[in-house]
């Protein structure tokens, strides 16, 4: 569905007959439409939600809007580039990508810009290496798990090396510190290990390890511990929830079903980082449950099409790549929206394709391009096979410019 468009390509036979051969676009149209909707809607909501942050930063009121618009074009360029490059070619670039990722993570941990008590960004907030790390770790694991498929159930060749890879990446991210990105990396790694088809006993061990590491990070991180305590308090009595969560819930209640109108919301002036982490609350207030529901459904379409592409991939690395990237995008969306309604403890996850921010938007669009590349390669292979079968049928009918089988009436006439 949505993966092909047929046109009438007529091939004339010697007797004037015509045949119709399907020509496929090679891209998943529903996925592209879902992504374009989220990008367009995101630009609109960033424009509505970024007035106050722009003024607080002593910039023109359209500063974050125009900046987001520029990053949208950069992201589209990244998506097109990754889509038209065969995803299998990235195998030879795995080691350089990991080295660049580690260098950037170490650099930002020691020399990054301090924002919200963390060193997470470089170049005036334009580059956030933890977002690159999420993309790189998924690409690396997709190829690494495929190459180790025969020994994955051997704990010495499968689980231990994977824990080492994830632990190294997560440790560098915790130096910033960035608890939400750390836990996201660990969850994505465990999921991809599961998708690779390892033994269920190792899956249980992975769950225990990820849970234990997550609990450890919560204990050693003052921010994480405070946020978890606030989450428990909010579960017992929402009245005692953190001010951020209370304002978010107030925004959703104020929006009702149809919302107060885009640009007319007032909660964005009280919500912290209304144009990034809190933008879903602004969406719920200004477009109501109707608009918020459309956003949720669009992410569901994105997940459906991404998993469909993964299922039809030519090889295991394509399946792992498409599935891992799809899960990453939808996981970020679920966490962001869940935090705004107090389903999850507060985290700094952006709303993919909507929240303002160059690094997250560019990496997400690169992920979309890679997913489309997996589907495009599979469709190209399918087209080749159908083309060979179609040509064989046409050649069989044409023969050497005449029919290969005599007609019955001709045989009878000859006998007479």
UniProtKB/TrEMBL annotation:
It is an enzyme of class 2 (transferase). It comes from the Bacteria. It catalyses: [GlcNAc-(1->4)-Mur2Ac(oyl-L-Ala-gamma-D-Glu-L-Lys-D-Ala-D-Ala)](n)-di-trans,octa-cis-undecaprenyl diphosphate + beta-D-GlcNAc-(1->4)-Mur2Ac(oyl-L-Ala-gamma-D-Glu-L-Lys-D-Ala-D-Ala)-di-trans,octa-cis-undecaprenyl diphosphate = [GlcNAc-(1->4)-Mur2Ac(oyl-L-Ala-gamma-D-Glu-L-Lys-D-Ala-D-Ala)](n+1)-di-trans,octa-cis-undecaprenyl diphosphate + di-trans,octa-cis-undecaprenyl diphosphate + H(+). The keyword Methyltransferase does not apply. One of its GO terms (biological process) is regulation of cell shape. One of its GO terms (molecular function) is lipid-linked peptidoglycan transporter activity. It is found in: Membrane. It is a multi-pass membrane protein. The chain crosses the membrane at residues 29-49, 69-87, 94-112, 132-147, 154-173, 179-196, 203-221, 279-304, 325-347, 353-374. It holds the Pfam family FTSW_RODA_SPOVE. InterPro entries: FtsW/RodA. Peptidoglycan polymerase that is essential for cell division. Belongs to the SEDS family. FtsW subfamily. This is Probable peptidoglycan glycosyltransferase FtsW. It comes from Bellilinea caldifistulae.
